[in-house]
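pasting Methylthioribose kinase for the record, 390 residues
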Amino acid sequence: VIQETYQPLTEETAILLAKERNLFSENSTLSCTEIGDGNLNLVFHIKDQDGKGIIIKQALPYAKVVGESWPLTLKRATIEAEALKLFKKHAPDFVPDVYYTNEVLAITIMEDLSHLTISRKGLIDGNEYPLLASHLGTYLANTTFFTSEFGVDKGQKKELVGKFINPELCKITEDLIFSDPYFDAETNDFEPQLTSTVEKLWKDTELKLQVALLRKSFLTEAEALLHGDLHTGSLFVSKEETKVIDPEFAYFGPVGFDIGQVIANLLFQAIAFEEKSDSIYSQVRTFWNVYQNQFSILWEHDNLEPFARIDGFLSSTLQKYFQDAVGFAGCELIRRTIGLAHVADLDGLPDEKERIAAKEKSLALGRELILKRNEFTSIEELVTFLQTKK
Ligand code: ADP
Ligand code: MG
Ligand code: MG
Ligand code: MG
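structre below
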């Protein structure tokens, strides 16, 4: 199966590959199902007769978006595999094991997490994940600290920055998050009832300036290795476990971007289900507090930066991450409401009036978070602000 040239696997060749790699004992009977969502990647789930499984994720050389397809580099499979390995090293509890990768085939073979649930689905179904927020805080503190100049040798960091140049996937983010929602782009997708609000947003030069600044930060600030697509669809969860998957958008960017995506995707739950808002706000609080505590502990014990002991350096670093995160969260709220890729939390609301009202709320909140981000000096101020918006 392992060939000199790229070829999409089938359920049959995926099994042959698993056998060839000795991932199962010789006499096992294997079955395989393709379980991906089919836009960018194939995901094969292979199981033996006892239900023991593995996952093979393979990148496709194109993306199916807006009805047509555009070519997309297979290199992202290598980026994803390398990012998984590095994140695994720094946050072992929260990342699947990688068993094998192949650059030519653009595949990663990894731990089967099918005993867990994708958190977006679980949350929409009304389940609670009491450890999710603190797990994510620890995961992100570790991965962002140990890939920043505070936690890794500066020469090594520069090498990593070069290894994780990810221009095509970054361009998707630059367009879909920081550009298209702010003008009449073909990729946008929203209900006619939102038209007047959206047209106002397109003329909102104050807002567009702040988005331009956040976009510039995304384009230029190589603070740490980001996941780059850290929404609740990239998290496998149970009451006990959290695993972060799908880092194909990984690149060195502003730390607040990942933090902000987590916050925004939690907030969709509060926007869609009013009765959950207190619980969601307290999860946002826990997430940031755990991030901050863990990052501060690492700063204290593992900092390689000679200036680390200067009074105020840690607190201004955290303050910058936090304010950036608030702004990036605002961008995520807006783009998931009117841009190309939506979230089921909002789209799935069956009552039309309720759905439109939730989307209006998401747009208004997104706008305020972007404009006011530098006014928030603590998580309590953010939570208080969110509570007044209910
Ligand atoms: P994409 O980049 O195409 O979004 P993902 O990595 O998010 O791909 O995977 C798509 C889907 O495949 C996930 O939502 C999940 O259902 C399934 N999947 C991916 N990785 C695993 C895994 N390690 N174990 C079990 N299922 C997985
Ligand atoms: Mg998917
Ligand atoms: Mg995904
Ligand atoms: Mg993906």
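The chain has a mean pLDDT of 96.
Residues 113-388 form a domain with the Aminoglycoside 3'-phosphotransferase; Chain: A, domain 2 fold (CATH 3.90.1200.10).
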